[in-house]
Amino acid sequence: MNSFINYIVGYEAKRKRLLKKVPYGPLHDFLSVPFPTLNTPIAELPILAVDFETTGLNAKADKLLSVGFVSLEHEQIKLNSCYHQIINTKVQLEESNVIIHHITDAQKEQGQPLHLVVEQLLKALAGKVMLVHFARIERQFLQQACLKLYGLVPDFPMIDTLVIAKRQLDKRDVAYDPSELRLSNLRNNYQLPAHHGHDALNDAIATAELLLAQITGKASTDKVLLKDIIL
Fold first, then answer.
1. Which of 39, 63, 68, 224 is in the most buried spot, having the most CB atoms within 10 Å?
2. What's the pTM value of the predicted model, to 2 decimals?
3. What whole-number distance in Å separates Cα of residue 145 and Cα of residue 52?
4. Cβ distance 41 to 225 under 8 Å?
5. What domains, with CATH codes, occur in the chain?
């Protein structure tokens, strides 16, 4: 199913269908705002770059630890929109995981409850397209959180910088190392500065910068439409 058909019979149809079922609250407010149309130029596309830190990779068994996001408007990263919040998750953190995300049990205990963090994310995401690097994590964990909090699973239109890079590499029809698709390696290819990874906000900003680098150099970013880059 191509992105256009998926968008028409998927994202928008499901949004309207769920809107009739969901009670008033954060998810209802999110679903009340139509998604951008597929023909929206990238220069006019409202985007929210999002990243999660989690206790693992299984959205059903593992937990969200932190959320970071930043808005992109008119191809500019709005640093005054930055948001980062650790979540007070009722699990004991594993040392091997803490080494990666650097969130300690003490920090976690000072975090906000899941429902408040998801509410802030949905509010910021209304009417925007979500930008991520490796969509499976953000999609599955956010859907699982919505199922837990609201009893419903919405869908989220997404742009994935990993997928954009993979499409570009596949066009070369030459074998490549999958490690080339890592966020840090892709940023290096575009001569973007090194960043402190495994911090949700830093990774969200890094992903936003990568997207801007990926679309720079095209004849005109006005000619890059949402349908050209949506999952």
1. 68
2. 0.91
3. 12
4. yes
5. 3-229 (3.30.420.10)
Residue 106 corresponds to which amino acid?
Answer: A
The arrangement of strands across the sheet holding 47-54 comes to 76-86, 64-73, 47-54, 129-132, 158-160
CA distance to 32, 35, 124, 213, per residue, from 25 (Å): 11, 18, 14, 37
Residue 99 falls in which region: left (phi positive, over 0), alpha (psi -120 to 50) or beta: alpha
What is the C-alpha separation between 226 and 169, in angstroms, rounded? Answer: 20
What residue type is 102 in one-letter code?
H
Residue 40: count of CB within 10 angstroms of its CB: 15
Tokens of 165: 């890079």
pLDDT tens over the chain, length 231 residues: 455 555 555 788 889 999 999 999 999 999 999 999 999 999 999 999 999 999 889 999 999 999 999 999 999 999 999 999 999 987 665 555 544 555 666 676 778 999 999 999 999 999 999 999 999 999 999 999 999 999 999 999 999 999 999 998 998 888 889 999 999 999 999 999 988 878 999 999 999 999 999 998 665 666 889 999 998
Contact criterion met (CB below 8 Å) for 214 and 161: yes
